Amino acid sequence: MPNQKILYITTEMYPYQEDTNMAAVVNKMALKMHQEGNDVRVFMPRFGQISERKFQLHEVIRLSGMNIIINDLDQPLIIKVASLPGERLQVYFIDNEEYFKRKQYYFDDEGQPFEDNDERAIFFARGVIETIKKLNWVPDVIHLNGWMSSFVPIYLKTYYESDTYFKDAKIVLSLYNEKDAPLASNIGEKLSFDNISGLKALETPSVKSFVIESMKYVDAVVKGDEFLDEDLDKAFNETATSKSEYLDVDSINQLY
């Protein structure tokens, strides 16, 4: 259905990341919906490997300048934007020196997860939500891809519950086989600062536990990878949320 406002929130997208299924799928979904006459925006983190010069990123001054408070500390939010190469499709990048300048994604050179991955995910989720509101652009569909984006519905249905801005948006979650990793044991304290508590994911906080937690805060769940690992597949089969098996890009608009 054309003429919809569709927001893709993702941690990966081609050509900014290459060689992953998620990056390719998000690129194809966003382009297909854009070319069919929808108003499409993409939000993702500005990881350190993404070349600002190569992809012609520039800061959006009117959107930057906000601070997000995480764990009682003010973290400045910087918004950058680029057009997908060869297309008139805008991609917005959530940036912050503390969280996203490093050249690796989630693991250091020794393969250990970054201790602040939880704060990075919280900052990303809050940053996307606040920037969308500042854009004064109300999405009809929010499609989530990548574990960091799973914090968005958790925040929308708790911290932002009384905010009517997103109340009519349909939220779709795609599941992918991402490398699991523990999140900081004190993530519960950071979330409680935003009045978020009682999450099952907090019992054993990890990348996967928060993805699974987010399934109950969305309107539809779909397999982003055709075959999911055992834990994700079990959670997918058990969720009471409306769900769909793997869909190719040409069929994904059935969810919208």
UniProtKB/TrEMBL annotation:
UniProt KW keywords: Glycosyltransferase, Transferase
Protein name per UniProt: starch synthase
Annotated PANTHER family: ALPHA AMYLASE DOMAIN-CONTAINING PROTEIN, GRANULE-BOUND STARCH SYNTHASE 1, CHLOROPLASTIC/AMYLOPLASTIC
EC number annotated for this UniProt entry: 2.4.1.21
InterPro entries: Starch_synth_cat_dom
Keyword Glycosyltransferase appears in the UniProt entry: yes
GO molecular function: alpha-1,4-glucan glucosyltransferase (ADP-glucose donor) activity
Broad EC category: transferase
Organism the protein comes from: Chryseobacterium endophyticum
Reactions that this protein is recorded to catalyse: [(1->4)-alpha-D-glucosyl](n) + ADP-alpha-D-glucose = [(1->4)-alpha-D-glucosyl](n+1) + ADP + H(+)
Keyword Transferase carried by entry: yes
Domain Starch synthase catalytic: 5-179
Pfam families: Glyco_transf_5 (PF08323)
